[in-house]
Amino acid sequence: MSTYKENMGFIRTVLNILAVVFALVVSLVYIVANGGDYASPLCQYAGVNCPNKVVVDGYTSEKYKELRQVYQKMFDEKRDVASCFAVYG
Fold first, then answer.
1. pTM for the whole thing?
2. Could you give the CA distance from residue 60 to residue 87 in angstroms, rounded to a whole number?
3. Do the Cβ atoms of 60 and 88 come closer than 8 Å?
4. Domain ranges across the chain
5. What is the C-alpha to C-alpha distance for residues 71 and 57, in angstroms, rounded to an integer?
């Protein structure tokens, strides 16, 4: 016969598993509902550290102006939220 403590340990384990599954389902629903856009869980659930307008800055030579525009467009469309790029020539 199991004891009260053993039962409570089992119940806690089940609740922890359910909490993880719930978080994964909510994240999946968020991603699908937003057409595949992704934001960090902290942003999704608490609204903290959400990317607003990302500005691509720095010097760009004429040769790479089009690349810079494509890069900015990816941030504007929220297809990218935190990357970096550098070319030295």
1. 0.39
2. 9
3. no
4. 1-49, 51-89
5. 11
| Residue count (the chain) | 89
How far apart are alpha carbons 6 and 51 in whole angstroms? 45
Q: How far apart are CA 81 and CA 74, in angstroms?
A: 8
Structure tokens at 63: 């040769």
Q: By the 8 A CB rule, do 85 and 71 touch?
A: yes
DSSP 64: G
Q: C-alpha distances in angstroms, 43 versus 14, 23, 29? A: 27, 13, 15
pLDDT in tens, the chain (89 residues): 678 877 888 999 999 999 999 988 887 777 767 655 566 677 767 767 676 667 777 888 888 889 888 888 887 777 776 677 777 66
